[in-house]
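#random but structural
TW: two for the price of one
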Amino acid sequence: MFEAKILSWEWALKSMNSLHMEKVTFAASTMNIIKAIHKPTEWPLILSHIAPLLVLGSGKQDWFVLFEPTKCNTGAFFIAKSVTLDLRLSSYVARHAPRWLAGFFEHEKSLLLNPSI
């Protein structure tokens, strides 16, 4: 599971680079990877795992990684589920949420803006 999370981060950073996007905020619920990306020297046991991520992100001043509770990431879960269940062989990542998930993303945004919900 840990290796899959690292590979997904690697894919995300490669996508950021290939799409020529400079200002990107990534959010995830994997706190140890997030902390290691921010302070790699404090995480020597996983440094070799995150080294490719650090290389892919080097030279990019405006990308950021932050923690997001799982309950605030339902839309991403549904996208992943649709990809695996429908056996999609290519990415359908876009700059905006799929229309069928717009309501989910609006709800998640409200959870981040109002954590007491």
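TW: number two ↓
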Amino acid sequence: MAHPRVEQHRFARAEWVRGLRGLREADGIRRLEPMNSISWMVGHLAWHERLMFLERAQGLKAEPVLDAVAFGMPASTPSLKAMWASWTRMTEAADPFLDTLTTEDLLRPWPHDTRSQAPSSGSQLQRITFHYWHHIGEASAVRQLMGHTRLASFVGAIERDAPYRPESDEP
């Protein structure tokens, strides 16, 4: 069983996927200014997964295409299909590492985080988890503005899929 914070992160990922179910390419690349396109949001979260769990945590380089959707980059409308593919690769690459994390690990900065005042990896894991919730709401609002109906309501089945579990129960 993964660390409770990792379980919560995976739940946020699953809610992200659930919230975008049925989104077509044409709507995914559509931009309702000043918001970014949903395809940009998908790529942006893939970039954040790469930054946290591959680069800062493991020192790995991957998917340079995601640099275009990094924090602070200009708005764009990349292919939704391509961004989902990158997101899937980044999350699948991150998962084996996430499965190894302990509370002790989360108290230290990521090993390859070169910032002088790097926060703990646990704080960074919380940041990316909360980042998902930000974009879940934003993407839902964009879909509503596009006239989409029967959208997912949030929060889903957290009691079943990611219930509260004390950190003392970690593996």
